Amino acid sequence: MQRDLVSFPLSPSVRVKLVSAGFQTAEELLEVKPSELSKEVGISKEEALETLQIIRRECLTNKTRYPGTAESGKKYTALELLEQEHTQNFIITFCSALDNILGGGIPLTKTTEICGAPGVGKTQLCMQLAIDVQIPECFGGVEGEAVFIDTEGSFMVDRVVDLANACIQHLQLIAGTQMAEEHPEALQDFTLENILSHIYYFRCHDYTELLAQVYLLPDFLSEHPKVRLVIVDGIAFPFRHDLDDLSLRTRLLNGLAQQLISLANNHRLAVGNIVQITKPEGIYSTISNHTSGISRCCCCY
Question: Cross-referenced CDD domains, in alphabetical order (predicted)?
């Protein structure tokens, strides 16, 4: 039974503590005693008992409702997966070199890791993508919305305004040269105010807030089905400064990555993760590393 804990009706505080302790799925808790869970997670015995009762009741209800079926949902053949890949949409950037490198743009249902040294423009690229995801379909866009999770405080709304105005002007030039009937109508809604109102910004100050926000995203996405892009600006930043336990940090980062992959697949959206690149100390060193450690480099997307 591989059911994610985020799908259970647990309180946000308990859910975050479970994830912080390394629990990801229901089967990891089915054989745990309330006293053991209380001690390991850091909640009261009453909360631990209530949590286990909810999980076991939900699992039993699901098993009764769908006897003999797997939790993992629909199965696909390799041919069906290949056909889905060929029909997959992309978030275009209007930068032909970048779109060509990415095979058409930022792909939906995938996570894209944006790496680089400080100051190279990773955040600006993501702010641009938060605008590009809203480009109307008649211009080749996906006409969606964006979620921007900021852990470093680097989101600059003034810069977003500049980028949005530039994008509007670019689309107006395209509309003036191609003279398509649907272009003027689409541009009526593609205004600065609408662009800014469809970028949902969340500021996370530590890894607990980041975990909570990401694991609560399924509920938010259900309420905002047009979201086609989730940006996490500085996915490893709060873990570097607030968590000294390397094994726990690795476990939490891997769980976070898996949750983002699940969001991309289940909600048909693109995920962009910003990761800093640093150079190890030493005058002979020429190798750059992810600041989140080698385990993040090996995490499957």
Answer: Rad51C
Q: How far apart are CA 154 and CA 238, in angstroms?
A: 14
| Strand duo 227-233 + 106-107: pairing | unpaired
The predicted model scores a pTM of 0.71
Q: CA-CA distance, 40 to 258, in Å (whole number)?
A: 22
Q: What is the mean pLDDT of the chain?
A: 82
Based on the fold, state whether residues 43 and 110 are members of the same structural domain. no
Q: Among 238, 263, 275, 233, which Cα is nearest to 127's?
A: 233
Mark whether 215 and 241 lie in a shared domain. Answer: yes
Q: What is the DSSP string of 251-293?
A: HHHHHHHHHHHHHHHHTT-EEEEEEEEE--SSTT----EETT-
Q: Look at residue 70 and tell me if it is in a domain.
A: no
Output the pLDDT for position 125: 93
Q: Are strands 289-290 and 270-278 parallel, antiparallel or unpaired?
A: antiparallel
Do residue 185 and residue 54 come from a single domain? no
